[in-house]
Specification:
By secondary structure, the chain is an alpha+beta fold. Helix content is 27%, strand content 34%. It folds into 2 domains: 115 residues, no CATH class; 285 residues, 6 Propeller (Neuraminidase), CATH 2.120.10.
């Protein structure tokens, strides 16, 4: 009798934890970087190749740092504000940097400061959400990619407008819209050395690097996108494009890995520069030497990202080198809130789901001997959810359907484990 009470209590507690975690995940907007300490997602190399700028999270607060390319003399140069600062970009003379700052609503604006962090100033881009920006060679104009701030957070199909190209005059603050194409995806902005061409990537079934002529206001493909190209960036002379793509050896695996490639635009010769078997992102050409700096996403595809700064020769003859940055360590003890979030996480939901059905299996074993019944119920629910994902995807947002399908697959895997457990329990009970 006492064992029965323990099993029932175990089952009820598992159910309460399951319901509580699902409720938490539904109504709480979890931020995986809330307590994170580590490198951000974007870097830039100074025009004289002497230093690198990057963003760094310190206990969840992201700011702009600068360091020598040997990893020494790391200095924070932006204020440690409540908003997150990231995506640094050097001016052509190296005396200034621009960066993006994200507020509590996810809206990003442009700020400019001197190389040492002094005289920081936010530019007026009211009503716009900026995702990328670069200096013009004369430093007086900044080009940027943005969409209406009012459209941020809207589901696909609900938005009226998307991304376009803009410019802002630093003296007058006047903002001019250069394109009106409402691109679904538009990123990786860079500029030619003469300031006449802007480069960025568009998405139309595949990532497509394009060149935008400021004189003619036209978009022209840089290369024919016969393959997937991500994080593409052009060299200053416009002859090479560096990008990341799924490696050949991972295309038939369950987890794609992304390596760094460089393509000669004139003869289309392509060289693979890395073989790290993780995820390479944010490549940046050096200016004076034939090298590329990039970030290695070491724990791909987990979040928060654990990035490592690396460099590699354009020849591909040498192994990539790690830049050991002398970064500040976390100074806060976030063990309790991090543990609570983990106990209410999506992974924990799967554990509570299994524990709840294990409790039902044990109860069924003692009550009726039908140990397979809870397992089959779980299998039935997973199939029902999977079928329902297609209905939900067709009637509402396709992403909701994809999310529900992923839930169904997880339930199915858990159900297979429960069936195995039921089999073991039945065999064990027969022997005893």
């Amino acid at each position: 009798m006492e064992k029965q009470r323990v099993v029932i209590s175990f089952t009820i507690i598992s159910l309460l934890l399951l319901i509580g975690s699902i409720t938490f995940q539904t109504f709480y907007e979890r931020d995986p970087y809330r307590y994170y300490t580590g490198l951000g997602q974007n870097i830039d190399v100074a025009p004289d190749d002497s230093s690198v700028a990057f963003s760094y999270f310190l206990d969840g607060r992201e700011a702009i740092y600068i360091a020598n390319l040997d990893g020494s003399e790391v200095n924070r140069i932006s204020e440690m504000t409540e908003g997150r600062s990231h995506s640094p970009n050097f001016s052509p003379d190296g005396k200034q940097l621009l960066f993006l700052t994200e507020d509590d609503h996810g809206i990003q604006t442009i700020s400019v400061m001197n190389h040492d962090g002094s005289e920081a100033k936010q530019l007026k881009t009211e009503g716009l959400h900026v995702i990328d920006a670069v200096f013009e060679p004369d430093n007086e104009t900044i080009y940027f990619i943005a969409m209406l701030a009012s459209e941020v957070g809207m589901a696909e199909g609900e938005t009226r407008e998307a991304y376009d190209l803009f410019q802002v005059d630093r003296q007058s603050g006047q903002v001019v819209q250069l394109t009106d194409k409402d691109h679904f995806s538009m990123n990786d902005l860079s500029i030619s050395a003469d300031g006449e061409i802007l480069y960025y990537s568009l998405f139309d079934r595949k990532e497509q690097p394009v060149a935008f002529s400021l004189a003619e206001k036209t978009e022209t493909p840089v290369v024919q996108a016969n393959e997937e190209m991500y994080s593409s960036v052009l060299s200053e002379d416009g002859t090479l494009v560096a990008y990341t793509a799924v490696s050949e050896e991972s295309k038939n695996s369950s987890l794609f890995t992304y390596e760094l490639y460089v393509k000669n635009i004139e003869n289309t010769k392509t060289d693979q520069l890395t073989d790290l078997h993780t995820h390479v992102q944010s490549p940046v050409f050096f200016h004076k030497t034939d090298k590329i700096a990039f970030l290695q996403y070491q724990n791909w595809p987990e979040v928060p990202e654990q990035n490592q700064l690396m460099t590699v020769s354009l020849s591909g003859d040498d192994e990539p080198e790690t830049v050991e940055l002398d970064l500040p360590a976390s100074s806060e003890n976030n063990f309790i809130p991090v543990t609570i979030e983990f106990l209410l996480s999506e992974k924990a939901i799967a554990v509570y789901y299994v524990l709840f059905f294990v409790g039902l299996i044990l109860i069924a074993q003692r009550k009726s001997g039908k140990v397979y019944l809870p397992s089959f119920v779980s299998l039935g629910l997973s199939i029902l959810f999977f079928v329902g994902s297609f209905v939900i995807g067709a009637l509402t947002n396709p992403w909701y359907g994809i999310w529900l399908a992923m839930v169904a697959i997880t339930m199915f895997i858990c159900s297979l484990f429960l069936v195995l457990l039921s089999f073991i329990l039945q065999r064990f009970s027969r022997r005893s």
